[in-house]
Specification:
alpha+beta, Helix Hairpins, endopeptidase fold (from Nostoc punctiforme)
Amino acid sequence: MKKTCISLFLALLVTGLGAPAHAAPARPASAQDLEQELTRLDQQLTADQAKLDELNGKVEKARGDVDVMDHKLAADQARESELDKEVKALARTQYERPALTVSTVLEASTLQQLISNLAQARLVSHRQQAVQLEAKNLRHQDQDIRNQQAQKLVEVKSAQDQAANVVLQTLTLRNQVSDQVLANRAGTVLQQAQATQAGAAAAIVSRSGGSAVPFEAPASNSFAYGYCTWYVANRRNIPWMGNAIDWWPNARPYGYAEGGVPAVGAVMVTRESPIGHVAYVESVNGDGSWTVSEMNYAGWNVVDRRTIHPGGVPLVGFIYGKA
């Protein structure tokens, strides 16, 4: 409903359409009305973007959770397979050498010892089967948790897509109003120039925004566009998921070395936001400082460079290549 009303408002502003002939003509929107509408849309865009940022964080967190559970399930399956082999080996041994044999009876000095030997064999077998059953139940529990997290990822990803559409719609409306405001301002400048008769009239209207180094995300980069994680994933092969702060624990299962010393090509992980921050180390300097390139530090979708000295940031550490 809000989008329809704003679209109608803009159509009247830009095209100058009036009411039917028998009705009073629509009042043209004043420059003040346009300025107020632009301010309102700027505020709406800020709120929409904040909601999208929140959902982007949830999506990355959900992806990281699913990734962790995938590794845990793989470990569960390996453990269950190993226990299955042990149980089968024990069963084969018991078949080939039954607990109750002539030698077992003869070797037992007393009836009590014979009963104790038989009970011990059964106890080992039962314990082994119990451990196997426990491992199987644990795998099923982890599978259920993984499925729940995967469903949560689907739901939050859907909400993220909807929020992204809202941001796009608000941005489109905001730009339409901004174009009209700029056109009005240009007209005012032109009138002033013509009134003074001071040479040729000129009105130059420029628009500029935050610039960003263009990157084409590879097919494997599924991080949210415009953020630090997306940028670094274009500079390095990042097989794990999660928010920036999750990269430090999530890199280990993939065999990536970590440490506290900067190195060219390493990923710097810091606590510079509630969900962390990552940057790409471009160079290491002789005074112990290092230079990084990064995105979403100076602004969303903006790439910048910083030179950092030891102790200058809340450093978590550096992620190097595969060990």
